[in-house]
Amino acid sequence: MVATSAPPRSLRRRVRALHRRLEDHYGSAKRRRIGPLDELMLTILSQNTNDANRDRAYESLRQRFPDWESVRAAPRSAVEQAIKSAGLWKQKARTLQETLQAIYEEQGDLDLSHLKGMTDAEVIEYLTSFRGVGAKTAACVLCFSMGRPYMPVDTHVHRVARRLGLIPAGASADQAHGLLNGDSSVPPELRFSFHIQLIRHGRAVCRASRPACDTCVLEGLCPKIAV
Ligand code: SF4
Question: Rounded to two decimals, what is the model's pTM?
Answer without folding.
Answer: 0.90
